[in-house]
Amino acid sequence: MEVINYHYVKLKNFIMDLKFITCSGANEYTNADALFALYAQFSCVEFGIQVSGKKCSENSPRLAWLRNLHKKILEHRVNLPLALHLNQDWVCGFYQDDISPELHELLSYSNSSGEPLFQRVQLNFKIGREIAPQIDMLEKQMMKFPQVRFILSYNASNAEVITELYQRHNVVFDCLFDESFGEGILPEKRHAPVFPDVIQGYAGGLSPENVSQELSKIALVQPMSASVFIDAEGKLKGEDRHFSYLKAHDFVANALLWQKNNLRV
Protein backbone atom coordinates (compact mmCIF):
# COMPACT_ATOMS: atom_id res chain seq x y z
CA MET A 1 0.00 0.00 0.00
CA GLU A 2 1.39 3.39 -1.02
CA VAL A 3 2.51 5.69 1.78
CA ILE A 4 1.23 9.24 1.39
CA ASN A 5 3.73 11.53 3.09
CA TYR A 6 2.58 15.11 3.55
CA HIS A 7 3.85 15.57 7.12
CA TYR A 8 5.47 18.99 7.52
CA VAL A 9 5.79 19.41 3.74
CA LYS A 10 5.78 23.01 2.55
CA LEU A 11 4.35 23.31 -0.95
CA LYS A 12 3.50 26.86 -1.96
CA ASN A 13 0.99 25.69 -4.55
CA PHE A 14 -1.28 24.10 -1.95
CA ILE A 15 -4.38 26.08 -1.09
CA MET A 16 -3.46 25.44 2.56
CA ASP A 17 -0.57 23.85 4.39
CA LEU A 18 -2.30 20.96 6.22
CA LYS A 19 0.24 20.10 8.89
CA PHE A 20 -1.67 17.64 11.08
CA ILE A 21 -4.71 15.48 10.66
CA THR A 22 -5.51 14.60 14.25
CA CYS A 23 -7.55 11.51 15.08
CA SER A 24 -8.51 11.81 18.73
CA GLY A 25 -10.01 9.30 21.12
CA ALA A 26 -7.57 6.38 21.06
CA ASN A 27 -7.56 4.73 24.46
CA GLU A 28 -7.31 1.42 26.31
CA TYR A 29 -9.87 -0.08 23.93
CA THR A 30 -7.64 0.69 20.94
CA ASN A 31 -5.24 -1.88 19.54
CA ALA A 32 -1.87 -0.13 19.38
CA ASP A 33 -1.05 -2.01 16.18
CA ALA A 34 -3.91 -0.14 14.49
CA LEU A 35 -2.20 3.15 15.29
CA PHE A 36 1.08 1.89 13.85
CA ALA A 37 -0.77 0.75 10.72
CA LEU A 38 -2.43 4.15 10.20
CA TYR A 39 0.86 5.96 10.65
CA ALA A 40 2.57 3.60 8.19
CA GLN A 41 0.05 4.64 5.56
CA PHE A 42 -0.42 8.30 6.48
CA SER A 43 2.58 10.00 8.05
CA CYS A 44 0.56 13.22 8.49
CA VAL A 45 -1.70 11.58 11.07
CA GLU A 46 -1.55 12.53 14.74
CA PHE A 47 -3.29 10.69 17.57
CA GLY A 48 -4.91 12.75 20.31
CA ILE A 49 -5.24 11.00 23.68
CA GLN A 50 -7.58 12.35 26.37
CA VAL A 51 -6.32 12.24 29.95
CA SER A 52 -7.41 13.46 33.35
CA GLY A 53 -7.13 12.34 36.95
CA LYS A 54 -10.41 10.46 36.61
CA LYS A 55 -9.36 8.59 33.46
CA CYS A 56 -5.62 8.16 33.92
CA SER A 57 -4.77 7.74 37.58
CA GLU A 58 -2.44 5.03 38.89
CA ASN A 59 -3.86 1.52 38.29
CA SER A 60 -6.26 2.83 35.63
CA PRO A 61 -6.56 0.92 32.32
CA ARG A 62 -5.65 4.06 30.38
CA LEU A 63 -2.37 4.65 32.16
CA ALA A 64 -1.47 0.97 31.76
CA TRP A 65 -2.29 1.24 28.05
CA LEU A 66 -0.15 4.37 27.66
CA ARG A 67 2.77 2.72 29.42
CA ASN A 68 2.48 -0.24 27.08
CA LEU A 69 2.19 2.05 24.05
CA HIS A 70 5.36 3.86 25.10
CA LYS A 71 7.14 0.52 25.44
CA LYS A 72 6.02 -0.58 21.97
CA ILE A 73 7.13 2.70 20.41
CA LEU A 74 10.60 2.24 21.85
CA GLU A 75 10.74 -1.43 20.83
CA HIS A 76 9.61 -0.79 17.26
CA ARG A 77 11.50 2.50 16.96
CA VAL A 78 8.47 4.04 15.27
CA ASN A 79 7.78 7.52 16.57
CA LEU A 80 4.02 7.84 16.49
CA PRO A 81 2.91 11.51 16.44
CA LEU A 82 0.99 11.82 19.70
CA ALA A 83 -0.84 14.72 21.34
CA LEU A 84 -1.78 14.60 25.01
CA HIS A 85 -5.07 16.37 25.71
CA LEU A 86 -5.26 17.50 29.35
CA ASN A 87 -8.73 17.77 30.88
CA GLN A 88 -10.44 18.66 34.15
CA ASP A 89 -8.19 18.41 37.22
CA TRP A 90 -5.07 17.69 35.17
CA VAL A 91 -5.30 20.84 33.07
CA CYS A 92 -5.94 22.97 36.17
CA GLY A 93 -3.12 21.22 38.00
CA PHE A 94 -0.79 21.93 35.10
CA TYR A 95 -1.17 25.69 35.16
CA GLN A 96 -1.37 25.83 38.97
CA ASP A 97 1.98 24.01 39.30
CA ASP A 98 0.27 21.01 40.88
CA ILE A 99 1.04 18.30 38.33
CA SER A 100 0.08 14.80 39.41
CA PRO A 101 2.78 12.08 39.53
CA GLU A 102 1.04 10.25 36.67
CA LEU A 103 1.09 13.32 34.43
CA HIS A 104 4.73 13.99 35.39
CA GLU A 105 5.47 10.46 34.23
CA LEU A 106 3.73 10.89 30.87
CA LEU A 107 5.36 14.25 30.19
CA SER A 108 8.78 12.73 30.94
CA TYR A 109 8.45 10.01 28.28
CA SER A 110 10.73 10.21 25.25
CA ASN A 111 10.47 8.45 21.92
CA SER A 112 13.26 6.50 20.26
CA SER A 113 14.79 9.74 18.93
CA GLY A 114 15.00 11.28 22.39
CA GLU A 115 12.20 13.76 21.69
CA PRO A 116 9.13 14.07 23.91
CA LEU A 117 6.75 11.18 23.31
CA PHE A 118 3.89 13.71 23.28
CA GLN A 119 5.16 16.43 20.98
CA ARG A 120 1.96 18.44 21.36
CA VAL A 121 0.00 19.00 24.56
CA GLN A 122 -3.51 20.44 24.44
CA LEU A 123 -4.68 22.43 27.45
CA ASN A 124 -8.46 21.96 27.51
CA PHE A 125 -9.46 24.71 29.89
CA LYS A 126 -12.41 27.01 29.37
CA ILE A 127 -12.56 29.99 31.69
CA GLY A 128 -15.87 29.83 33.53
CA ARG A 129 -15.87 26.05 33.45
CA GLU A 130 -12.34 25.59 34.80
CA ILE A 131 -10.47 27.92 37.14
CA ALA A 132 -8.99 30.80 35.16
CA PRO A 133 -5.21 30.48 34.85
CA GLN A 134 -2.95 33.24 36.11
CA ILE A 135 -1.13 34.37 32.99
CA ASP A 136 2.31 34.45 34.65
CA MET A 137 1.93 30.92 36.02
CA LEU A 138 0.55 29.56 32.74
CA GLU A 139 3.47 31.05 30.85
CA LYS A 140 5.97 29.73 33.40
CA GLN A 141 4.56 26.22 33.22
CA MET A 142 4.59 26.16 29.43
CA MET A 143 8.18 27.41 29.35
CA LYS A 144 9.24 24.37 31.40
CA PHE A 145 8.63 22.24 28.31
CA PRO A 146 10.47 24.00 25.47
CA GLN A 147 10.35 20.95 23.19
CA VAL A 148 6.57 20.70 23.39
CA ARG A 149 4.12 22.57 21.19
CA PHE A 150 1.06 23.51 23.20
CA ILE A 151 -2.47 23.74 21.81
CA LEU A 152 -4.84 26.33 23.28
CA SER A 153 -8.56 26.54 22.52
CA TYR A 154 -9.53 30.02 21.42
CA ASN A 155 -13.06 31.13 22.28
CA ALA A 156 -14.84 34.13 23.79
CA SER A 157 -14.07 32.92 27.33
CA ASN A 158 -10.36 32.36 26.73
CA ALA A 159 -9.57 35.07 24.17
CA GLU A 160 -8.11 37.64 26.58
CA VAL A 161 -5.69 35.22 28.27
CA ILE A 162 -4.55 33.63 25.01
CA THR A 163 -4.07 37.02 23.33
CA GLU A 164 -1.94 38.28 26.20
CA LEU A 165 0.11 35.09 26.14
CA TYR A 166 0.68 35.53 22.40
CA GLN A 167 1.74 39.15 22.82
CA ARG A 168 4.44 38.17 25.31
CA HIS A 169 6.24 36.11 22.61
CA ASN A 170 7.80 33.75 25.17
CA VAL A 171 5.96 30.52 24.36
CA VAL A 172 4.98 28.79 21.14
CA PHE A 173 1.45 27.48 20.86
CA ASP A 174 -1.07 26.36 18.26
CA CYS A 175 -4.57 27.84 18.28
CA LEU A 176 -7.62 25.55 18.14
CA PHE A 177 -11.03 26.83 17.06
CA ASP A 178 -13.95 24.76 18.32
CA GLU A 179 -17.02 26.83 19.13
CA SER A 180 -18.73 23.86 20.78
CA PHE A 181 -15.65 23.19 22.92
CA GLY A 182 -15.52 19.42 22.63
CA GLU A 183 -19.24 18.86 22.08
CA GLY A 184 -18.77 17.89 18.42
CA ILE A 185 -21.19 20.48 17.03
CA LEU A 186 -20.62 21.53 13.43
CA PRO A 187 -20.49 25.34 13.03
CA GLU A 188 -22.13 27.14 10.13
CA LYS A 189 -18.84 28.80 9.23
CA ARG A 190 -15.24 28.45 10.31
CA HIS A 191 -13.27 30.98 12.36
CA ALA A 192 -10.82 33.25 10.58
CA PRO A 193 -7.22 33.30 11.92
CA VAL A 194 -6.63 35.47 14.96
CA PHE A 195 -2.83 35.31 15.16
CA PRO A 196 -1.03 35.56 11.79
CA ASP A 197 1.99 33.39 12.59
CA VAL A 198 0.31 30.63 14.63
CA ILE A 199 -0.82 27.22 13.37
CA GLN A 200 -4.63 27.29 13.23
CA GLY A 201 -6.57 24.19 14.27
CA TYR A 202 -10.19 23.31 13.59
CA ALA A 203 -12.46 20.87 15.42
CA GLY A 204 -16.19 20.52 16.01
CA GLY A 205 -18.30 17.98 14.16
CA LEU A 206 -15.65 16.85 11.67
CA SER A 207 -16.22 13.41 10.16
CA PRO A 208 -15.00 11.25 7.26
CA GLU A 209 -18.15 12.23 5.37
CA ASN A 210 -17.93 16.02 5.77
CA VAL A 211 -14.20 16.69 6.03
CA SER A 212 -13.89 17.78 2.38
CA GLN A 213 -16.75 20.25 2.73
CA GLU A 214 -15.36 21.59 6.01
CA LEU A 215 -11.85 22.00 4.60
CA SER A 216 -13.36 24.09 1.81
CA LYS A 217 -15.03 26.26 4.47
CA ILE A 218 -11.72 26.60 6.31
CA ALA A 219 -9.91 27.50 3.09
CA LEU A 220 -12.30 30.41 2.54
CA VAL A 221 -11.06 32.16 5.70
CA GLN A 222 -7.38 31.29 5.33
CA PRO A 223 -4.60 33.16 3.50
CA MET A 224 -2.54 31.12 1.06
CA SER A 225 0.36 30.85 3.52
CA ALA A 226 -1.75 29.48 6.36
CA SER A 227 -0.70 26.40 8.31
CA VAL A 228 -3.68 24.47 9.69
CA PHE A 229 -4.62 21.22 11.38
CA ILE A 230 -7.94 19.47 11.83
CA ASP A 231 -9.07 17.32 14.75
CA ALA A 232 -11.94 14.83 14.90
CA GLU A 233 -13.03 12.55 17.72
CA GLY A 234 -16.74 11.92 18.18
CA LYS A 235 -17.41 11.04 14.53
CA LEU A 236 -14.46 8.61 14.55
CA LYS A 237 -16.17 6.27 17.00
CA GLY A 238 -17.62 2.96 15.88
CA GLU A 239 -20.82 1.26 17.03
CA ASP A 240 -19.07 0.28 20.26
CA ARG A 241 -18.51 4.03 20.97
CA HIS A 242 -14.76 3.65 20.83
CA PHE A 243 -12.08 4.77 18.36
CA SER A 244 -12.60 3.17 14.95
CA TYR A 245 -9.58 2.38 12.79
CA LEU A 246 -11.74 2.33 9.65
CA LYS A 247 -13.35 5.71 10.33
CA ALA A 248 -9.99 7.26 11.20
CA HIS A 249 -8.53 5.84 7.99
CA ASP A 250 -11.35 7.33 5.90
CA PHE A 251 -11.11 10.68 7.69
CA VAL A 252 -7.41 11.04 6.89
CA ALA A 253 -7.74 9.66 3.36
CA ASN A 254 -10.60 12.03 2.50
CA ALA A 255 -8.72 15.03 3.91
CA LEU A 256 -5.67 14.19 1.80
CA LEU A 257 -7.84 13.66 -1.26
CA TRP A 258 -9.29 17.14 -0.76
CA GLN A 259 -5.78 18.53 -0.48
CA LYS A 260 -4.68 16.76 -3.66
CA ASN A 261 -7.72 18.04 -5.57
CA ASN A 262 -7.05 21.60 -4.49
CA LEU A 263 -3.53 21.95 -5.79
CA ARG A 264 -2.96 25.30 -7.41
CA VAL A 265 -1.24 24.93 -10.78
- Note the overall shape: globular
- Provide the spatial order of strands within the biggest beta sheet: 1-2-3-4-5-6-7-8
Low-confidence stretches: 1-14
Instruction: Tally the structural domains.
Output: 1
Distance between the termini: 27 Å
Largest sheet: 8 strands, parallel, barrel
Mean pLDDT: 90
Q: Give helix % range.
A: 25-40%
Give a count of the beta strands, DSSP E runs of length 2 or more.
8
Can you count the helices?
A: 9
Q: Label the structural class.
A: alpha/beta
Integer-rounded radius of gyration: 18 Å
Report the CATH C-level class: Alpha Beta
Annotated CATH topology? TIM Barrel
The CATH architecture designation is Alpha-Beta Barrel
How would you spell out the order of helices and strands?
A: EHEHHEHHEHEHEEHEH
CATH homologous superfamily grouping: Aldolase class I
Structural description of this entry:
With 265 residues, this protein is an alpha/beta fold. It has one domain (17-261): TIM Barrel (Alpha-Beta Barrel), CATH 3.20.20.70. Helices cover 35% and strands 17% of the residues. The protein is built from 9 helices and 8 strands. It has helices at residues 32-41, 53-56, 61-76, 88-95, 101-108, 135-143, 159-168, 211-220, 245-261, and strands at residues 17-24, 45-51, 82-86, 118-123, 149-154, 173-177, 200-202, 227-232. It has an 8-stranded parallel beta barrel with strand order 1-2-3-4-5-6-7-8, surrounded by 4 helices. Strand 5 (149-154), helix 7 and strand 6 (173-177) form a beta-alpha-beta unit. Helix 8 (211-220) crosses helix 9 (245-261). The longest helix has 17 residues, at 245-261. It is globular, with a radius of gyration of 18 Å. The two termini are 27 Å apart. Residues 1-14 have low confidence and may be disordered.
